[in-house]
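Hi R.,

Here's the chain you asked about this morning:
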Amino acid sequence: MSSTPHDPFYSSPFGPFYRRHTPYMVQPEYRIYEMNKRLQSRTEDSDNLWWDAFATEFFEDDATLTLSFCLEDGPKRYTIGRTLIPRYFSTVFEGGVTDLYYILKHSKESYHNSSITVDCDQCAMVTQHGKPMFTKVCTEGRLILEFTFDDLMRIKTWHFTIRQYRELVPRSILAMHAQDPQVLDQLSKNITRMGLTNFTLNYLRLCVILEPMQELMSRHKTYNLSPRDCLKTCLFQKWQRMVAPPAEPTRQPTTKRRKRKNSTSSTSNSSAGNTANTTGSKKKTPAANLSLSSQVPGLGAIPNCSLNPGRDGDLCHSTAVTPSGQFKEKH
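And the predicted structure, written out as tokens:
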């Protein structure tokens, strides 16, 4: 038996015993290939739990999905969060789609510290429609993906900008209804708008309302509150954040230095010294009257806190409040 290639992404086609165990590092495009395979394994019985598992496997918990396209009434841009992504993919199949996959051509990869960005200017979203008629829709545009650079390599941001789309009808169906003008007229009409079904477009419009309500839904799921109580709680907390004044940074007190005057004679030096001592003794007394609560954190209001003579004739007699709230005399 030949030796295993040194390619770290090698997966042997001969059986599961030669494949590496998940999670493992793969190329970003291969993750899209795995997502296409998972979408192909969908059945008609796939419920919400299946779609949640699908989104958990390929999207991060804080992932966002953005679609940009232009309709008859102007350009549109929709961005949905992680909780709404499973429902987005399910609406694609609810609109009559039987198969969905993505094709990336000539994509460019850029590696960052914690993410990998894939930029594909020639991306095609292919959908196979079974109703109202058998049609293949190719939606072309630019797809920008951001993956987390870890073992799971899940999608963090998904941005698909749609440029054009084509709806392909098999020739055999046209030949079968060549003599029926009504069927031919129906076949000539588009079944999608910019490659998206009406189910998906209506859901994206609904997400404009649902996205801001994610906080209410999360609070209802976490605390099991009624919708009215969730709304009251969220509004009250938002009002508190608006009313609460911003925290002001603490300012450090500035200290001023006194300038000394130079004297030319010893007599003036001695007189200046006496004057300085007298002035210093007079200026020390007001400093002693400062509240200790402003100097020492944790102390409350301190009554009669000064360096005035006390009852026993001591010079340093003061009353302070300890952090526990009790008064304590200091001598």
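Confidence is low (pLDDT under 50) at residues 1-24, 280-321, 323-327.

Let me know if you need anything else.
M.
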